[in-house]
Specification:
Elements (H helix, E strand, L loop, with lengths): L1 H11 L1 H7 L4 H22 L9 H25 L4 H8 L2 H13 L5 H22 L8 H26 L4 H23 L8 H25 L5 H7 L2 H14 L5 H19 L3
Helix pairs in contact: 1-10, 1-12, 2-10, 3-4, 3-9, 3-10, 4-8, 4-9, 5-8, 5-12, 5-13, 6-8, 6-13, 7-13, 11-13
């Protein structure tokens, strides 16, 4: 539980670090994933024999998961620059709702009344948050587009979770994330090169931010969350992620001086309630 608390604080810094960086979203996400891979390299080398547990189906699933994660990073990093931190982080955290829907259609998992209610509440909250952009209640440059990109990031994060769920039942954490991160980094590199964004030409300040993203949200955040899943009920882990938008909003207020609009705050509270209901309604 202590590790989980540290992880939620760590992932809450992600949007702040993105805002501090002047790099395009593609290279920024590429270096976050690549540096996380380098930090995990000693563990990956020690797990050499575990890679043999991958069969063809597992490799295809890991490939899909890595590409979905790359697309998630690309859309969400772009979202942070276009809408408020509060809106972007809250909307991307609606991932459990899309996982629940995807698990119903792909795996035949039943949806409890609580989960259905939670999905409906989360979507209603998302609509309320988008009204802030439509009515001019925020100073964000492109709030509507930013909110849509954050929702797209949530859908892609849900696809990443669903693609890797069966693999994780047979393959340990480090080999799995190593393969997924390699595919993800490759996808982000191709995306950056296709847009003509520079990959290497950055000042020392940017490299420190890239390293901070890898150590904080990458290593201490999502990797620790995956480790915690072996020791804490998955429903507890899912619900704990509602702390991320709260933490990010507070950090944005204190560090960036960014005050979210009234509808963003109201809609965000509704979304968090919906995420809580969805997560508690699923095993």
């Amino acid at each position: 539980m202590a590790a989980l608390a540290v992880a939620i604080v760590a992932v809450s810094t992600s949007a702040i670090l993105i805002r501090f960086s002047n790099a395009p979203s593609g290279p920024m996400a590429f270096w976050r994933v690549t540096l996380t891979l380098l930090l995990l390299a000693p563990l990956s080398l020690r797990s050499g024999a575990e890679f043999q547990k991958f069969d063809r189906r597992d490799l295809l699933s890991a490939l899909l998961a890595g590409l979905a994660l790359a697309a998630h990073f690309a859309t969400w990093f772009e979202s942070v620059d276009k809408t408020t931190v509060a809106a972007s982080v809250t909307l991307v955290t609606t991932q459990p709702a899309f996982v629940a829907v995807g698990a119903y259609f792909l795996f035949g998992e039943s949806l409890s009344r609580r989960s259905l209610a939670g999905i409906g509440v989360a979507l209603a909250g998302s609509a309320v948050m988008s009204l802030d952009g439509l009515l001019g209640g925020t100073t964000a440059p492109e709030p509507v587009l930013g909110n849509l990109l954050a929702l797209a990031g949530a859908v892609l994060a849900g696809l990443y979770v669903l693609a890797g769920r069966s693999v994780r039942q047979r393959v340990n954490l480090v080999p799995y994330v190593t393969v997924v991160y390699v595919v993800c980094a490759g996808g982000l590199l191709a995306y950056s090169l296709a847009l003509g964004d520079p990959v290497l030409a950055y000042p020392p300040r940017e490299w420190l931010l890239f390293l901070g993203m890898a150590i904080g949200p990458g290593l201490l955040g999502h990797t620790v969350v995956n480790w915690a899943l072996a020791h804490v009920e998955s429903s507890v882990v899912s619900v704990s992620f509602v702390g991320e938008p709260v933490g990010s909003t507070v950090l944005a207020l204190v560090i960036l001086g960014e005050v979210p609009g009234a509808l963003t705050l109201a809609g965000g509270a509704i979304v968090i309630g919906g995420i809580y209901l969805t997560a508690r309604g699923r095993r």
